[in-house]
Amino acid sequence: MHGPASPGWLLVALCAATGAYCLLRMRSSVEEQRRAAGGEALMGFGMAAMAVPSAVFTPPGWAWVVYTAVFGAAGLRALWAARDGAHHLHHLVGAAAMVYMAAAMAGSPGRHHGGAGIPLLTGALLLYFTVYVLVSGTRLIPVTAAATAPVAPRWGDRPELARACRLSMGIGMVAMLLTL
């Protein structure tokens, strides 16, 4: 994405770390968590790759077509999986946002929207991910634990870390959409 190098590298680090944790979550014993973690790892690493500052590396024009195809396929998979749960709809919106950003970058590498303002789709995605971040942030607020707490789950099965992972990617998506 286009923007200053320091925030760009912070975004790369955040998204890559999130993708790496999602890879750890793929070792979960719960099949649904493994499936969701795989899509989230793809999203994290894809966001990290797209966020590399253009002053450091400008991908060739065909790379944006690859991003579009990969996240288009991820979106179709999320659409198919949405039959089973609403969380997959969020994956569908995330994949669609990545396709949109890749297509926008392919059409205007090195340029901003200028004084035209925020396009309608960019604004709608910004609104969606801003609300998602706010709601996800409130879900991280601890609640009082029951007196008989179960045995601590493994790294890959900790729901609060999965929520923090999703929150991080939501924040990253907002940052990427702002620089589009």
From TrEMBL:
Keywords: Membrane, Transmembrane, Transmembrane helix. Pfam families: DUF5134 (PF17197). The lineage of its organism: Bacteria, Bacillati, Actinomycetota, Actinomycetes, Kitasatosporales. The keyword Transmembrane helix applies. This is DUF5134 domain-containing protein. InterPro entries: DUF5134. The chain crosses the membrane at residues 6-24, 36-56, 62-80, 92-110, 116-135. It comes from the Bacteria. The keyword Transmembrane applies.
